[in-house]
UniProtKB/TrEMBL annotation:
Residues 354-438 form the Apple domain. Gene3D superfamilies: Bulb-type lectin domain, Phosphorylase Kinase, domain 1, Transferase(Phosphotransferase) domain 1. ATP binds at residue 538. GO terms for molecular function: ATP binding; protein serine/threonine kinase activity. This is Receptor-like serine/threonine-protein kinase. Residues 510-795 form the Protein kinase domain.
Length: 808
């Protein structure tokens, strides 16, 4: 549970605006301190010092000089000067033009150079100029240039020649004779630290006119752009079909590089970078969700990346989490794994029982068969063995052999680390790999299966519990110190929570006088904090149930924040009292607006925005946070409406954590009839797809303005039809207009209605694998993904067939 205690706190030094205003230039004699920043003229980029704190027990943090996107509210590093030489303390830090004309980071009090634009000061004498000729300017492109003040076209140094992991528009990847540099992108070590990682985007070192992605420990590229044909790179299909970017490849005697520009720069904020996963990913800023949205990734499949999950792991493109340890192995470094750094891979739980003694080898190991895998790592082909048992023996006879396979009469053995194992669809030609394990890891299959399920269930609850214990511990420590009541933890974007005293909440709610609502677990009251913010206070009753719900809420939404998730402001935990404090939602919950006749009619455009917003909130819950959270109770009652009807998902009392190494979780049935996915009923372990199902049901209700459970409709033959089935039929017939809430009087955008209809019908498919992920749903709304006509959900049809007579 170490990784839970090592909580990463990203402290972004928010610069305090100076009285003299922001500038984009440092002139000789001026200095940029830790509190200042340069901002490009167009306001898109800023340069300054920022802090990334790895706040474990020893509270250390690293300082970097870098450029970030200034036009967007989410802190996004784009360039870092000292990525591999972090500065430990911000005391006396300054950026200035040095007396030799270079740009340096100085310790003012000791006058020592910590970082310099011309490396370790021994390279050449190009900078031996007078410093008062030189200025540093942050250009609109995000390029930090050191140039001659009287003649800015004389560039002495530029950050574009030393890219980190971000491919700026207009920057060049490749070789330049003038600087002698071969510029390339190097991924980050993990999702927090900007230190150099293992993946590179560079010109093909073999001289072919293409760019390639390579891993530092492998000489063979795992992706290439294809050879430049004069107009485009064959492996960038988007650049051919829908040209948004103008890519060019230049080859002459002085330089050879790849660059790109946007055809319409004003329309997007683009962030293209070499991701920690080893993929070149392009993000576009979406104002609506206040977040980056991925547009494309190369290679498309993350399992195509060399050693994507590290040694002794299996990569799965279809089902998150994409990386899992092989059987008998456990994650080497959970902290790194949590931060998307998979280089360590997995470790053997029990050492192999193999002793080599001269020319004889004795081994007690066994083999575990993994079906439907593909292995791209090269193996040793062994000629002698004629059948599978001889092949197994050949592996046992060599203590460095870790796996074998036998197919088409060929015996292959793998030695030492196993890399690039990939789970594939069984219908395609997958192989069976026999993995060598200690006999201790394979005692008895029957027993093992149960152990796995128990492990899965306890693993998750232990994780939840430890988080809870951690919160409580922090709380107790705080109380002892009687100091500030602000806990700051979680990751970037996760603000702190306040721990309230019971008496404060009593006062805030005027002794719990104004009740907003009630539920199975407790009642909700309106209140006011000192600064007159309105809050909703949920007081949990029933000690035991309440405790469970309290824990679920604090550990799930306490650590994550998103515009479409209701914000947990804080909590109170005194004796047996458990209270949760949320931001107050002036417009109540969605069910009131949809189903109550006295509520004002929700216009179509509002409904569409609500559908989209809920999808974003769920997508964030499922994929963007460190641990996947399944809400388990999506229904209109749990969708609150904020100012201007921005939807916020609420009530996380039933939420389940899905640990990083699990794709499913076993849990007792929970949720609400009418929104329950079929897999609940069959009792298998669930995935985030149960939320997708419930979301589909909610979409139908948003469209019809009625409960799905009993929507009578005149379908010509005077039969009441279960509405979801009716929808599926109408989509197949191509008639969606008749499905709409008649109160809307056709004041709708039919294209949007069609999208919502199709999305809903895909979401309620019986088979969870047929349903889209919430991320895909968001992409459909954003127009980044096509959607086909969905098939009829059969189970629903069957249920409807047997129950239509009882529905009135
Ligand atoms: C600068 O030097 C002072 C005195 O040696 C030291 O306390 C401080 O931590 C240094 N700052 C940096 C950024 O190294
Ligand atoms: C300093 O630069 C020279 C020339 O580029 C290089 O050979 C040397 O290894 C560098 N030294 C350090 C400590 O980085
Ligand atoms: C540049 O610096 C030199 C030496 O400090 C000084 O003599 C000269 O006047 C300066 N030039 C300008 C333009 O400031
Ligand atoms: C800067 O430009 C001026 C005028 O063109 C020139 O005299 C000076 O030598 C240049 N300085 C450098 C460092 O190139
Ligand atoms: C490369 O492989 C060596 C030996 O396997 C390992 O020690 C090193 O950490 C690897 N480097 C990277 C960047 O993965
Ligand atoms: C694309 O970029 C190249 C090189 O920068 C330029 O020559 C060409 O005109 C650009 N094409 C378009 C359509 O902008
Ligand atoms: C690129 O330039 C090199 C050196 O100038 C030359 O040998 C090579 O043929 C060029 N490639 C193309 C495609 O023009
Ligand atoms: C560029 O995008 C802006 C904003 O989306 C749009 O108004 C403008 O017409 C576009 N220009 C071109 C040439 O497409
Ligand atoms: C090991 O091999 C060597 C040479 O192949 C042989 O002389 C020796 O007797 C063998 N030892 C055993 C224990 O088989
Ligand atoms: C494999 O081949 C060996 C020798 O050729 C033979 O003794 C053994 O019975 C065979 N095993 C199987 C399962 O066919
Ligand atoms: C085991 O296999 C490795 C790799 O093929 C080989 O180098 C080594 O000599 C083998 N060891 C024995 C004892 O056969």
């Amino acid at each position: 549970m170490l990784y839970i205690l090592i909580v990463i706190v990203l402290l972004i030094s928010l610069s305090i605006p100076r009285s003299y205003g922001v500038t984009d230039t440092i002139a000789p004699g001026q200095a940029l301190t830790v509190h200042d920043k340069l901002v490009s003229k167009n306001g898109r980029y800023a340069l300054g010092f920022f802090e990334i704190g790895v706040s474990s027990s020893q509270k250390s943090s690293n300082w970097y000089l870098g450029i970030w996107f200034y036009g967007v509210p989410k802190f996004t590093q784009a360039w870092v000067a000292n990525r591999d030489k972090p500065i430990k303390s911000p005391t006396s830090l300054e950026l200035e033009i040095y007396h030799d004309g270079s740009l340096v980071v100085l310790n003012r009090s000791t006058s020592s150079v910590i970082w310099s634009s011309h490396g370790n000061m021994t390279r050449n004498n190009k900078f031996a100029s007078k410093s008062n000729d030189t200025v540093a300017v942050l250009l609109n492109s995000g390029n930090l240039v050191l140039c001659n003040s009287s003649n800015p076209s004389i560039v002495l140094w530029q950050s574009f020649d030393h890219l980190a992991d971000t491919f700026f528009i207009g920057a060049k990847i490749g070789w330049d004779e003038a600087t002698g540099l071969n510029n390339r992108l190097v991924s980050r070590k993990n999702s927090v630290s900007p230190a150099s990682g293992r993946y590179h985007l560079e010109l093909d070192p073999s001289g072919v006119d293409q760019v390639v992605l390579t891993a530092s420990n492998s000489s063979v590229p795992y992706w290439s752009s294809g050879v430049w044909n004069g107009q485009y790179f064959p492996s960038f299909p988007e650049s051919i079909k829908q040209p948004v970017a103008n890519m060019s490849f230049v080859n002459n005697s002085h330089q050879k590089y790849f660059t790109y520009s946007l055809l319409n720069e004003s329309s997007y904020v683009v962030y293209q970078h070499l991701h920690v996963t080893g993929q070149l990913v392009t993000f576009v800023w979406i104002d609506g969700s206040q977040d980056w949205s991925p547009v494309n990734a190369y290679p498309k499949a993350r399992c195509d990346v060399y050693a994507a999950c590290g040694p002794f792991s299996v990569c799965n493109d279809d089902v998150p989490p994409h990386c899992n340890c092989l059987k008998g192995f456990t994650i080497r470094s959970p902290e790194d794994w949590e931060l998307d750094d998979r280089t360590g891979g997995c470790l053997r739980k029990n050492p192999l029982g193999c002793i080599a003694n001269g020319n004889t080898t004795s081994s007690t190991d066994k083999f575990y068969a993994m079906t439907c895998v593909s292995l791209s790592q090269s193996s040793n082909k062994i000629v002698a063995p004629q059948n599978i048992s001889e092949c197994a023996q050949a592996c046992l006879d060599n203590c460095s052999c870790t796996a074998y396979s036998f197919s088409n009469g060929i015996c292959s053995n793998w030695h030492e680390e196993l890399l690039n194992i990939r789970q594939i669809q069984c219908s395609s030609n997958g192989e069976t790999l026999y993995l060598r394990l200690s006999a201790k890891d394979l005692p008895n299959l029957q027993k093992n299966k149960r152990g796995f399920i128990i492990g899965l269930a306890t693993g998750t609850s232990v994780a939840t519990l430890s988080l809870f214990v951690f919160i409580m511990l922090t709380l107790i420590l705080r109380k002892k110190r009687e100091s500030s009541i602000h806990i700051s933890y979680g990751a970037q974007g996760c603000n702190g929570m306040t721990v309230f005293r019971y008496t404060d909440l009593q006062r805030a709610t005027k002794k719990f006088s104004e009740k907003l609502g009630g539920g199975g677990f407790g009642s909700v009251f309106k209140g006011f904090l000192n600064d007159s913010t309105t809050i909703a206070v949920k007081r949990l009753d029933h000690a035991c149930q309440g405790e469970k719900q309290f824990r679920a809420e604090v550990s799930s939404i306490g650590i994550i924040q998103h515009i479409n998730l209701v914000k947990l402001v804080g909590f109170c935990c005194e004796g047996a009292r458990r209270l949760l404090v949320y931001e107050h939602m002036p417009n109540g919950s969605l069910d009131i607006h949809l189903f109550h006749s006295h509520a004002a009619l929700l216009e179509w455009s509002t409904r569409y925005q609500i559908a989209w917003g809920v999808a974003r909130g769920l997508a964030y819950l499922h994929e963007s946070c460190r641990a996947c959270v399944i809400h388990c109770d999506i229904k209109p009652e749990n969708i609150l409406l904020g100012d201007s009807f921005v939807p916020k998902i609420a009530d996380f009392g039933m939420a389940k954590f899905l640990g990083r190494d699990f794709s499913r979780v076993l849990t007792s049935m929970r949720g609400t009839i009418g929104y329950l996915a079929p897999e609940w009923i069959s009792g298998v372990a669930i995935t985030p797809k149960v939320d997708v199902y419930a979301y589909g049901m909610v979409l139908l209700e948003i469209m019809s303005g009625r409960r799905n459970s009993c929507v009578p409709c005149s379908c010509g033959n005077n039969h009441d039809v279960y509405y979801p089935v009716h929808v599926a039929q109408k989509i197949l017939e191509g008639d969606v207009r008749s499905l709409l809430d008649h109160r809307l009087h056709d004041n709708v955008n039919l294209k949007e209605v069609e999208i919502v209809c199709k999305v809903a019908c895909w979401c309620i498919q019986d088979n969870e694998f047929d349903r889209p992920t919430m991320v895909e749903v968001v992409q459909i709304f954003e127009g980044l993904r096509e959607i086909n006509i969905p098939p009829m959900p059969r189970l629903l049809q069957a249920i409807a067939g047997s129950s239509s007579s009882t529905c009135s």
